[in-house]
Amino acid sequence: MKILMRTLGLLFVLALAGGGWVAYEAHTFLNTAPETPGRDVFYDVPAGARLAQVSAGLAKLGVVTDARKLDLLARYKKWENRLQAGRFALNTGWLPEKVLDELVNGHPVLYRVTVPEGLSWWQTGKVLEEAGLVVFEDFRKVVTDPDFLRHYGIPFATAEGFLMPDTYLLKKNEVIDMAQARAVAGRMVDNFWRKTAAVWPDGKKPGPGQADQLKTWMILASIVEKETGIDAERARVAGVYQNRINKGMLLQADPTVVYGLGPAFDGNLRRRDLDDANNLYNTYQRPGLPPGPICSFGAAALAAAVRPEAHNYLYFVAKFDGGEHVFSTNLTDHNKAVRQYLQNRRSAKPAAPDAR
Predict the structure, then answer these.
(1) pTM reported for the whole predicted model
(2) Over the chain, what HEC string results?
């Protein structure tokens, strides 16, 4: 009994000591700033970031002294799933609770949004609207506004193709209005001209007298972007379409038809869509390039359009969805490839003349 009592007493003392140590550690963490005086720092919280990821990043910057303890604090306050995305102005002189409160209830200095390659202008507008950065209708009016297009040297009826895919950190006005939409769209077009500067021949972007050449490059680049995601194939795909243009052949590019169907497209391209000559973007029915670009594209697709690969290919077909392609110089070989790779996936449209 004496041994038992002594053991229990020792455990009680250890528990008190342990509890006291935990309380001391918690008190010290909550009431001691990492640095005095503090310094201003910026921290970017990606959309959908995990709490542990953010805590580790803050500890690395010196905004908090212990990432694990910040995790525990967030869970105690039930804030672990309430972190906002964006760039935040923080200070290493703040206490942990103030840091956490700023990430949950504060206002980001800049808001982060990623616009992937291959989106149409209306898909881009939806991405920006969902991020809370624009009202879609305002964005639509801006990217079709003749004054906006003229200001940025865009020779089309919309800014399609010039809304550079990228990850942006953007300011948000107190009121999300037309001015906000114009600022966001302008930032994207400026980014396009900046990121494509090295692609143009001689490093000079096309001037007013080169509008026709610019149109050709822009439209072709957008088609290349939609046709292949493989960098090594981009110039070859561009060469296929350049060869077809040179020979006066129909381009027969599915993505142009889809674009002409607009936001109402349900994901299923039908034979009647390919037969519809009223679709201005139907390259199965209308010769030459479509009226304008069909998506936003990266610098790699533009480089391919500016410098297509020289070859004799006139056709190509994907081996698998989203995979590499088989290129052919004649219709007989192309049809063999179509039968081999697409017999179970292309029943809704004619296989023979398709450029893909």
Answers:
(1) 0.75
(2) CHHHHHHHHHHHHHHHHHHHHHHHHHHHHHHCCCCCCCCEEEEEECCCCCHHHHHHHHHHHCCCCCHHHHHHHHHHCCCCCCCCCEEEEEECCCCHHHHHHHHHHCCCCEEEEEECCCCCHHHHHHHHHHCCCCCHHHHHHHHCCHHHHHHCCCCCCCCCCCCCCEEEEECCCCCCCHHHHHHHHHHHHHHHHHHCCCCCHHHCCCCHHHHHHHHHHHHHHHHHHHHCCCHHHHHHHHHHHHHHHHCCCCCCCHHHHHHHHHHHCCCCCCHHHHHCCCCCCCCCCCCCCCCCCCCCCCHHHHHHHHCCCCCCCCEEEECCCCCCEEEECCHHHHHHHHHHHHCCCCCCCCCCCCCC
